[in-house]
Amino acid sequence: MSVEPLAGYTVGITAARRREEFGAALERRGAKVISAPAIRIVPLADDSKLREATEQCLRDPLDVVIATTGIGFRGWIEAADAWGTGEELVKAIGQATVLARGPKARGALRAAGLRETWSPESESSSEVLEYLISGDLEGKRIAVQLHGEPLPDMVQTLRMAGAEVIEVPVYRWVPPQDTAPLDRLVQAVRGGAVDAVAFTSAPAAASFLRAAREQGCSGVVRSALRGPVVPACVGPVTAGPLLAEGIPVIQPVRGRLGALIREIVEQVPLRRGISVPAAGHVLDVRGHSVVLDGTLMPLSSASMALLRELTTRPGHVVSRAELLKVTPGESGEHALEVAIGRLRIALGDPRIVQTVMKRGYRLAYEPERAGNHEGTRRY
Predict the structure, then answer these.
(1) Chain-wide mean pLDDT for the chain?
(2) Which pLDDT value is given to residue 202?
(3) Residue 4 carries which DSSP code?
(4) Over the stretch 312-335, which tens digit does the pLDDT of each residue have?
(5) Which residue, among 376, 300, 313, has the nearest Cα to 340 in the 3D structure?
(6) What is the second-level CATH architecture of the domain 274-373?
(7) Is a pLDDT exceeding 50 seen at residue 154?
(8) pLDDT over 90 for what percent of the chain?
(9) Structure letter (DSSP) for residue 184
(10) Could you tell me the fold of the domain covering 10-39+176-272?
(11) 10-39+176-272 and 46-171 share one fold
């Protein structure tokens, strides 16, 4: 019976939307999932600004319409329908040059019977802006559908180029009502208790980093996200807040949830796992479990800490003092002997962990059998 690729790994997800679908997909691949929404999307409490912006769009012909998000564009059309101006708005947009920031915005446009004129490969607002300012914008009327936060750089640049810009606010991002799950995820990252954290929107990434600052552990969390914890982002826009903090991320070529899941399945075992031949067995050490000869064997946190320390330096003697440092709550040589005994029992073969009298313990590493099994941590 094959072991799922993410079995033994823990993945935190910060998504507000589609989190059940995302979490279920990771769990089907064996992951333990910690769900901690970092944001929530709420419609504007007072839609007078949206209605006023819509009326501005209908007052005179539009030259350009920028759809930045699928949910936002759909919300705009639905609001206009409720006011009885939906058809008129769709017609007005259809007569303009329509730009879609990414695939979700494209999908919302097409669902409304519209077609985009152009969409950037990068799904970046910056590339949309670059596309626009390459031409003459003097006197052009441009409607920009906002995506939860103002876009001051884009709006200011367009106005400086001579355009009349109509900002269309549809919804906004706010912190989750219950911040406890997010706070726990921040602490899990801080302590290296998760193997990866996934982000599907830039506001969620920014909110996660803000939560770390508010808890007074920003530096430690940033350090953890640079390794050993793997940050995974759905695309370059989402990655922006993390990259701005000097945190490298993994991301798929295409900004889709399915592609992000495949990237996590491929990259997390490479970066967080280590495979070592020992005493006639193959140990695949994962986040909170070990796969022994193809069988998943969950271990206690103390046993995992000991095994990870031994496999980090396979074949080398690790002193008792060093091993005691990685087993919180244990003190004294007798306690360490008991903990090693538990690890041996859990692994099912006491030969895997060897005692070196008066010195410490070593993994019964067999380099001659390493071949393709030899693993290296890739942090």
Answers:
(1) 90
(2) 85
(3) P
(4) 888 899 999 999 888 766 567 888
(5) 300
(6) Orthogonal Bundle (1.10)
(7) yes
(8) 72
(9) H
(10) Rossmann fold (3.40.50)
(11) yes
Domain assignments of the chain as residue spans, ordered by start: 10-39+176-272, 46-171, 274-373
Task: Give the integer Cα–Cα distance in Å for 300 and 280.
Answer: 23
Contacts of 263 (CB under 8 A, 6+ apart): 232, 250, 251, 252
pLDDT at residue number 108: 95
Instruction: Give backbone dihedrals phi and psi of 236, rounded to 5 degrees, phi first.
Output: -65, -35
pLDDT at 2 over 60: yes
- For the entire predicted model, the pTM comes to 0.77
- Supply φ then ψ for residue 7, to 5 degrees: -60, 130
How far apart CA 370 and CA 379 sit, in angstroms, is 21
pLDDT at 374: 43
Dihedral of CA 73/74/77/83: which sign? Answer: negative
Residue with tokens 């193959």: 282
For 46-171, CATH number?
3.40.50.10090
Nearest CA-CA partner of 54 in 26, 30, 25, 87: 87
- 3-state DSSP call for residue 189? helix
Token pair for 336: 């360490």
Question: Are the C-beta atoms of residues 150 and 167 closer than 8 Å to each other?
Answer: yes
Position 81: which residue type? D
